[in-house]
Amino acid sequence: MSLSSKVLYDQFVRKLEAKWRLEESKKIAEIVFDHLFEISRIDIFLNKSVSQLEEQLAPILKRLLKGEPVQYILNNAPFFGLSFFVNPDVLIPRQETEELVALILKENDHGYKNTLDIGTGSGNIALALHAQRPKWELTGWDLSPQALEIAKINANQLNLNVNFACLDILNKDPDMDQYHVIISNPPYIPSSEKSLMAGHVVDHEPELALFVADDHPLIFYDAIASYALKSLKKQGKLYFEIHEDFAYQIQTLLSHLGFKGIVIHQDLNKKARMASAVRA
Ligand SMILES: C[S@@+](CC[C@H](N)C(=O)[O-])C[C@H]1O[C@@H](n2cnc3c(N)ncnc32)[C@H](O)[C@@H]1O
What we know:
single chain; about 280 residues; alpha/beta; Rossmann fold; 2 domains; 7-stranded mixed β-sheet; two-stranded antiparallel ribbon; 12 helices; 13 strands; about 20% strand; binds S-adenosylmethionine
């Protein structure tokens, strides 16, 4: 039986509105229709006819209304033009982190660079960089073996080569003068902010990826910057994604450690969300 995609889409959006505002409901519906049925916004606009979609949509709707993120339901998240397998073992790649990748690409040319991504999760940063900079040698570390399994699945699916390893950055001795570039988007949300956050994040995404103790929110920045100070080559660059509330403290921390050329970068929303520094 052939059905109107516009009618199905409108019905789906209306049901989603029980939980989300209209714009968010439309966005989620578009992701589902595009990924599952390969029907784009334009196809819906043109009212392309579809067959047997209703039964497939029902279980997805049920999970969405329970608050599960659409990316985990579809096991898919886009990042920097690539398609990543995701499940609740990894953080869902964020748009802000695409801006960090864009900054690194803007500031670093195509020539060989030994590059390390600390807290790699799904491997999104390391794999996106390797897709754009094939000559770079990429390594990705994470404490979570489950996350690393996902990162390896993504490397295989994308046919990109990153050396992944299971490692605790809070207990890592430096590797002297190894890397041209070190990047990290570490856990940085103080536990006390948990109660202010959306249920779909707190209830479904991995705690290990998100939270730090209230009394030591910069623990990862401190450990990673100290590691990087010795492990970067001279003139090597360190890049962080940061919490806007801690921009000043991170700048001070990097300066006290002896980094030069420290810059706090604003994202598209004019928030201080990235830091970069150079090993003198
Ligand atoms: C904010 S997530 C970033 C994930 C991914 N790089 C991204 O940008 O979307 C932080 C990552 O750090 C990892 N992590 C947490 N504690 C760690 C530790 N002590 N050593 C290494 N990685 C750690 C988490 O498992 C998680 O994958």
